[in-house]
Amino acid sequence: MHTFSEYLGGDHQRCDELFALAEQAAAARDAKAADAHTRFVDAMEHHLRMEEDVLFPAFEEAAGNSMGPTAVMRHEHGQMRELFRQMGEALAAGRFDDYLGTSETLLILMQQHNAKEEQMLYPMTDRMLAGRLEELLLQMRDLQ
Length: 144
Known about the structure:
Elements lengths: L3 H24 L5 H31 L5 H24 L3 H33 L4 H10 L2
């Protein structure tokens, strides 16, 4: 991987694919929809931890500011987590339509969020942290 943009952008795609599979399973009222949702949420939680535990602190240190774009991203991560929770509860109760309705809200939030990261935050990070790329990617890969 040559940049944070490539690595994390690629992970966005992986999470998007798992999200689509979870939605498809819920739309089909498949008994395995909850498993698909869990795989998606696990992938998203790993992605969010890579950002919150590794990338954002390094970015904030380099920028000398924790109230910039990373504060917005953290807030949106919290919103996503709340939607993950609501979706899981809907599946547990067999309310597939509620799951799909909440997933539409999540889709819009994730599209807007990912666009901000991919078009603004990641390119800024590529410039500001280029000298720490390998170190930080290694830390991201090591997260459980």
